[in-house]
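hi! just following up on the protien thing from before. the input was this:
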Amino acid sequence: MKNVLSLVFVSVYFFCDAFQQVSPRQPSTPDKRVEKTRTRVQEARVYVCYSKNAYAYHAYMCSGFKRCKASRGEVSVSEARGMGYIPCKICY
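and the predicted 3d structure came back as:
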């Protein structure tokens, strides 16, 4: 009797599962939140030291940036990368 009931239960379970409504898959489009984040990162402002030995861009309160004796500037991350600067190891 137990075997018959378990067989009926398993059959009903698989029968119902096979005919369950499946929502159609949405086309693969980039998430708008990801695009905004990418834009925000590229538009973020960083600080650079315009000396001949400077190689990194910084967050404002970084100790490496505070040591800069030359002129300082604020640029976007993409501009800093375009000038050859890399992220500072202390503040990034």
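Residues 2-18 form the longest helix (17 residues).
DSSP finds four helices and four strands in the chain.
cheers
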